[in-house]
Amino acid sequence: MTRSDLVEELAARFAQLTQRDAEFAVKTILDAVSDALVRGHRIEIRGFGSFSVNHRPPRMGRNPRTGQAVQIPEKRVPHFKPGKALREAVDQRNPV
Questions:
Q1: Is 92 exposed, middle or buried (0-12, 13-18, 19+ CB in 10 A)?
Q2: Which residues does 8 contact at the CB level (< 8 Å), separation at least 6?
């Protein structure tokens, strides 16, 4: 599902929302999640899951072309952990 698919689904479910209002709502929520993660905060949405920032320490890697050792700097990366309700709902779906 893409962002535009999410906007269309939201507008279809709630007749009082115009396409423009639904787009604004989705953009606002995603911006709030992004801003919180940039600041290092954890976001928890009950029944869905939690977003957090993981710290990856610096390490040595290899250039696949030359085999030369390369220093990889530390990183902060976003991480999503699905909640129990989401895991169970996905597990109950029949394969297509």
A1: exposed
A2: 19, 22
pTM: 0.77
Which burial class, exposed, middle or buried, applies to 8 when counting CB atoms under 10 A from its CB (0-12, 13-18, 19+)? Answer: middle
User: Residue 49's beta-bridge partner residues?
Assistant: 45, 82
CA–CA separation, 73 and 56 (whole Å): 9
- Coil, helix or strand at residue 75: strand
Kindly give, in sequence order, each residue whose CB lies less than 8 Å from that of residue 83, ignoring residues fewer than 6 positions away.
45, 46, 47, 48, 49, 50
Per-residue pLDDT 10s for the chain (96 aa) are 999 999 999 999 999 999 999 999 999 999 999 999 999 999 999 989 999 999 999 999 999 999 999 999 999 999 999 999 999 999 986 665
